[in-house]
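Chapter review: from sequence to fold.
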Amino acid sequence: MKVKIKKLKENAQAPKYQTPDSAAADLHACLDGTLVVTPGQRVRVPTGIAIEYDDKNVVAVICARSGLSAKHGIALANGIGVIDPDYRGELLVSVVNLSDQPYAFTDGERIAQLMFLPIIRGEFEFAESLSDTERGAGGFGSTGA
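The token string follows.
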């Protein structure tokens, strides 16, 4: 699938797959200087790019980088970022610092991953009842620890 990339800032970098079999491409920070995120703080890290792809049955998803999370406590503030096929604005990565130490992002640093997934749209309708299952309405922790 071809993905057009519009550079919004001169120092922006294209997403890059790190290996031939990588499922997601790294997104890079596009900063004029250092961006320090204090413990508990949420910020949007700019990438300096916008994208366009022509398959309306695909969604672009921004995922966390496991190294930033495991080593520094930097997670995505929204779990994942959903980039709808019709969005043409800058890709921003919303992060939160879950550690007890400040973290400094630098220009060009790999900050998140971008992957493309198929979209399956549900057709919603109200129903008087739902089928019975062994689990039923058992929620959080109902199947074990």
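Two observations follow directly from the output. Residues 3-118 form a domain with the Deoxyuridine 5'-Triphosphate Nucleotidohydrolase; Chain A fold (CATH 2.70.40.10). The mean pLDDT is 95.
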